Task: inverse folding
């Protein structure tokens, strides 16, 4: 093999490795950064909760098919050798009997069963929508909590870097005789506090990431991060029209309404079932010396029991479904009022920060740093200014997170986005 051939083989192998490993490298470097929409898509695709709700829909559709089926007929046949005992005839034949039975269901009973099954399918569909709304809200809440924890960890790292810079400045002053060893000790203590806060923030960040990954059915991996922004209030909120909208469109209300409708049809079915089904009979019989073709009817007589237990059970299920729907309606009304107030409160807090508090805190720490460099401020003054500035930024991020979470919970109570 020539040198050129060897070189060409090596180049081809390298190109193959690069092209083959490209998707893997992309998975490690790109796919580990997720937006909110990415996580919502993964959660909806892999969530076992939604899979269970979809299974309920399939189960209800199977029951709907069964409810529309007609009763099957039954056929009974028998045959055997037979003969007349009179020696003068000597007749021998193959005796045979054929019996056909066809149960007939009353139209009212069949209609009630089918309508109950139809309501069950609609209720299962509403339950699937409810599960999607709940999953989406849970993912959004976990996303905004993780976004806040990322901001907390970032501020903690910035605070550690600022304290380390301050400690170097203090050490230089101590070496120059411009500060005492006590100042160096205070700077060391402050650095330990900052490092402890950073460790706490990192642990909270891992816990928040694990919660979000669990909602996505573990599809995010362990080393992922997120990117996104907190939400803001873009419209006026009035609890009364929002409550009316929720009662009209919320999947939980629709599910319980269909459950009550299904219970009502089941009650009607049990009442219709007090009149038993009839069975049409037809038979053909052939034996030695006799042949017959018979038609008949079979009617059970409900003398001792007329489905009182089943009727009472269906009536209780109907009352329970009506009560559950009323309870959920009252809970939605209370939840909407509560979440609207939470949104307004968080929005007012953000306005306080935006209207000057953030700027004042930033100016204060900048002035404290400048004064400390020129010897016009003490170490304690600088530490207090940095601590207040970091706390202000953290409270601002917390207010943003609370507003985003309150809006998400309000949307959960509404059953749809704002």
Result:
């Amino acid at each position: 093999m020539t040198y050129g051939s060897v070189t060409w083989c090596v180049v081809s192998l390298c190109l193959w490795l690069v092209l083959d490993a490209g998707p893997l490298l992309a998975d490690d470097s790109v796919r580990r950064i997720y937006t909110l929409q990415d996580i919502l898509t993964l959660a909806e695709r892999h969530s076992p909760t939604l899979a269970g709700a979809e299974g309920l829909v399939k189960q209800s559709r199977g029951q709907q098919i069964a409810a529309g089926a007609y009763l099957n007929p039954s056929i009974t046949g028998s045959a055997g050798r037979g003969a007349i005992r009179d020696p003068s005839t000597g007749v021998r034949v193959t005796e045979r009997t054929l019996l056909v039975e066809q149960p007939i269901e009353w139209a009212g009973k069949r209609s009630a069963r089918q309508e109950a099954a139809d309501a069950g399918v609609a209720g299962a569909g509403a339950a699937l929508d409810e599960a999607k709304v709940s999953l989406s809200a849970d993912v959004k809440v976990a996303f905004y909590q993780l976004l806040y924890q990322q901001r907390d960890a970032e501020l903690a790292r910035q605070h550690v870097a600022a304290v380390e810079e301050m400690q170097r400045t203090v050490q230089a002053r101590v070496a120059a005789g411009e500060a005492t060893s006590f100042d160096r000790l205070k700077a060391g203590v402050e650095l330990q506090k900052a490092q402890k806060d950073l460790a706490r923030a990192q642990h909270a960040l891992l816990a928040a990431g694990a919660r979000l990954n669990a909602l996505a059915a573990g599809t995010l991996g362990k080393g992922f991060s997120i990117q996104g922004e907190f939400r803001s209030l873009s419209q006026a909120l009035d609890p009364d029209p929002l409550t009316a909208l929720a009662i009209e469109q919320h999947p939980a209300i629709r599910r319980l309404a269909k459950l009550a409708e299904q219970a009502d049809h089941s009650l009607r079915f049990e009442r219709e079932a007090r009149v038993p089904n009839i069975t049409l009979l037809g038979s053909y019989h052939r034996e030695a010396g006799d042949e017959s073709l018979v038609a008949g009817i079979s009617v059970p007589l409900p003398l001792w029991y007329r489905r009182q237990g089943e009727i009472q059970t269906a009536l209780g299920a109907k009352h329970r479904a009506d009560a559950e729907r009323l309870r959920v309606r009252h809970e939605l009304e209370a939840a909407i009022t509560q979440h609207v107030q939470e949104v307004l409160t968080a929005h007012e807090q953000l306005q306080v920060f935006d209207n000057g508090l953030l700027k004042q805190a930033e100016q204060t720490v900048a002035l404290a740093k400048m004064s400390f460099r020129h010897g016009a401020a003490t170490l304690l003054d600088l530490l207090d200014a940095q601590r207040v500035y970091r706390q202000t930024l953290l409270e601002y991020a917390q207010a943003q997170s609370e507003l985003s979470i309150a809006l998400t919970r309000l949307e959960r109570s509404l059953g749809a986005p704002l």
About this structure: Residues 1-29 have pLDDT under 50 and may be disordered. The first strand starts at residue 33 and ends at 34.
